[in-house]
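Below is the data:
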Amino acid sequence: MSTPLESLQRIFAESLETEERSILMRLQGAPRGFDHAQPCSISDTVADKQVMRDSRADLEDKLSQRVDLYQSSIRGNRRKALASAYPTLLALVGDTYFDHLCLDYARAHPSRSGDLNRFGASLPAFIEAYEPDPRFRYFADLARLEWSLHLAYFAADVEALTRDEWAAIRPEDLLDAKLAVHPACALVSSPYAVAEVWCAHQPGGCFPADLDSPTYALVVRPMWQPQIRVQGVAAQAAFGALQRGATLNAALDAAFAVDAGFDFTAQWRAWVEASAFTGLAHDAPSPEPSLTPMQ
């Protein structure tokens, strides 16, 4: 059974999530000032009741104004959090669409954490049902790409082996090893050119001519800034296998099954330069994104 304070907090929270203001009167009892112990005439009673009605209306108005301030602040903070995680989506759809999206998303997926950096986790899946127009079918995958970049920014900082340190490992040992994937890394695959759409909103970018061109990309964070590295479907298969704990040898088998001409040497160099792998794995799980801003 909840305590009076917990009940009050729940009522207040409910009032912030709805436009229905009658719930506000539960925050405070009826106005005082009508003394049932004092004798009075019928006319006095009618007059007192009118005063009580006026007082109640005035109280509702004041409570509504105060809650509106809280509600406006909460909505603004949620919108700011989503705009920070999904800047490209915001640039594409514009302020009005994005504002409505934020409100509808918040109703369907209220924040369950004190950290608003986590608030947008379900937005990509929400957009799939929210946006029925086939012209904008790529919005959900674009949002997935942006969320991966968002997580990459907050991922743990792990020191990776240098190119010389990798080169010092014997080839046979490397092939038989499992690799530790940097916690910032994430694979993004889509039937749409979402990586190009994202790049189009960066300095010097241009919008893709064909949105139906598939994307195979790896989100990395070689230094402090998350980046997108577009790669082939064979590289995507190999990296996915390594993420699932396969040895490098097994990952190469997966890649060559997709593309017999897969250039492993060039791809390996690109992965090492991007710090996609931190070293050899020792069956220890990679740290989860902390979503605590880096210093």
Summary: The chain has two domains: 1-20+52-137, 158-280. The longest strand covers residues 215-220. Confidence is low (pLDDT under 50) at residues 30-38. The CA atoms of residues 217 and 230 lie 4 Å apart.
